[in-house]
Amino acid sequence: MSAQAKKSASPKPDAKQKRFVSLFCADPALNATRAAIGAGYSEKTAAQQASRLLRNVKVRDAIEKVLAKAAMGTEEIAAQWSAIGRVNLSDFFDTVRRYRHPQVEKPLAEVIAERQEQIDFEEEFADASDLTEKQQDDHFVEQQLRKHEVLRLQIELRRNPAATRIVAGPVEWYDEMELNLAKAHALGVFDLAKSIKPTQHGIAIELPDRLGALERLAKWQGMFVDKVEHSGSMGIVWEETKAYEGGEAQAL
Predict the structure, then answer these.
(1) Would you say 209 and 193 are in contact if contact means Cβ atoms under 8 Å apart?
(2) How many other C-beta atoms lie within 10 A of the C-beta of residue 234?
(3) What is the pLDDT of residue 15?
(4) Distance in angstroms (rounded) separating the CA atoms of residues 175 and 165
(5) What does the pLDDT look like over 104-163, one tens digit per residue?
(6) Using alpha carbons only, how large is the chain's radius of gyration in Å?
(7) Angle between helices 210-220 and 74-85 (to 10 degrees)
(8) DSSP run (H or E) holding 99
(9) How far apart are CA 86 and CA 179, in angstroms?
(10) What is the pTM of this model?
(11) Cβ(226)–Cβ(239) under 8 Å?
(12) What single DSSP character describes residue 229?
């Protein structure tokens, strides 16, 4: 290579720039400013740094090489953004019908009446059934325990007529959303997920930024423009309008 060619060749990106390229290319929902922050640039100047980096020849070359190495053209990138933008949580969650016994407060007098009704039922059952002698003995012991419990409650009620008890109430049915891993896998959610990890409540799936992907896709399709205001030396404000087409910003 001639000395002139060596002089004109672009140097390789430094460590921060390489990190920026890696982050910017890895996540289609990550904008340049956030990629700059992730690469280690100051949050205060990240937007300016990101703009400068995207204009840097060696950074642009590095981005193009990463995308070329991955064999991903603009159409495929747009397809990835579209896939993220179309993610709908309801598509891979099932509605499961469950029941529970909520705890309720009940007057002690009602509790005693229910316990006494159980004792009466057990007496009728013992008289009508053909229990063995041992079964009759066991049943008698159980009944005595129930009667003693009722007696204790009756004494408590006499001492405190306003006494209550916390008991299991009527059954309540409710709907609960449950992650369907088979559906998520069939819809390709695992391929889009940023992370998948088990938790004490089940499997946690972190998805990319859907709105960020839709915004990039809209810019790529030229659906809207960005306007940046600049102040001139005479205090005159003018606008630089950038239209997005084919994934690149074009100054108008």
Answers:
(1) no
(2) 5
(3) 86
(4) 29
(5) 999 999 999 999 999 999 999 999 999 899 999 999 999 999 999 999 999 999 999 999
(6) 36
(7) 140
(8) strand 93-100
(9) 18
(10) 0.40
(11) no
(12) E
Q: Element (H or E) spanning 221, and its range? A: none
User: Does residue 207 contact residue 188 with C-beta atoms inside 8 Å?
Assistant: no
Which helix (H) or strand (E) is 102 found in, with range?
Answer: none
Query: Tell me, what amino acid is at 90?
Result: S
Distance between CA atoms of residues 32 and 46, nearest Å = 9
What span, in angstroms and rounded, lies between the C-alpha atoms of 7 and 147?
Answer: 102
